[in-house]
Design goal:
This protein is α/β, with parallel strands linked by helices. The protein has one domain: Vaccinia Virus protein VP39 (Rossmann fold). Helix content is 36%, strand content 27%. It is built from eight helices and seven strands. A seven-stranded mixed β-sheet has the order 3-2-1-4-5-7-6, sandwiched between helices. β6 and β7 form a beta hairpin.
């Protein structure tokens, strides 16, 4: 049996055979991470009208965004069809202002309107794209995503650092790799926040960083 590579769609579909495989809905660690990103938006852009979320999974963060920003329309992009199916159920109360799109960002990016969004949330999924693209490709994609924002718009990210070796994503969350992403984004937009956290989740300590860049 072939084991799916951890940055391919097949791997994510396998992960989502189990509902909420990373405990996004139930983990205080994950919920705190979401609320910190939302607080970072509120502090700098309190009333966004259009939000793009890249890698929305089953909609845990999407729902919090919809609740906190009742005037915003949200476009949520997710590669896993299983995750998207559950997200449709989870966000049903906000279906009138959340558009769910089941697609690979690499295939769909060109269909997203330029200079259109006030906020882009791109959390914990750049690892997979970074593993699929050469450096020049990931830099080009970063530039295209920044181009989806209106002038003054914000890109908000949370990224784990040095995940434990027994987690498949460990290889794509090495500190030098994540640091390079920060440097690349800093050359495309103005850094507005870089916060570092080390907190417990299910008996282990994990480090992550929250970044905000302004176009």
């Amino acid at each position: 049996m072939t084991v799916p590579e951890p940055w391919k769609k097949e791997y994510l579909e396998e992960k989502f055979l189990k509902p909420d495989p990373w405990n996004y809905f139930s983990s205080p660690y994950e919920q705190q991470k979401y609320h910190r990103q939302i607080d970072a938006i509120v502090d700098r852009y309190p009333n966004p009208r259009k939000i793009l979320e890249i890698g929305s999974a089953e909609g845990a963060h999407t729902m919090l965004l919809a609740k906190r920003f009742p005037n915003a329309r949200i476009t949520a992009l997710e590669i896993s069809s299983l995750a998207m199916k559950r997200a449709m159920e989870n966000i049903s109360a906000f279906a009138d202002r959340i558009e769910l799109i089941n697609a690979d960002l690499l295939d769909f990016e060109s269909l997203l309107e330029d200079f259109s969004y006030d906020i882009c949330i791109w959390s914990e999924s750049i690892y997979y794209l970074g593993a699929r693209l050469p450096v020049i490709g990931i830099y080009d994609l970063m530039g295209k995503i920044m181009g989806k924002l209106q002038p003054g718009g914000l890109l908000v990210m949370a990224n784990s650092i040095e995940l434990p070796a027994d987690i498949p994503e460990s290889a794509v969350t090495k500190r030098p790799i994540i640091d390079s992403y920060y440097s690349l984004f800093s050359s495309l937009a103005t850094p507005a926040l870089k916060s570092i956290y080390a907190e417990e989740k299910m008996g282990r300590i994990y480090e992550y960083q929250i970044w905000v860049f302004q176009r």
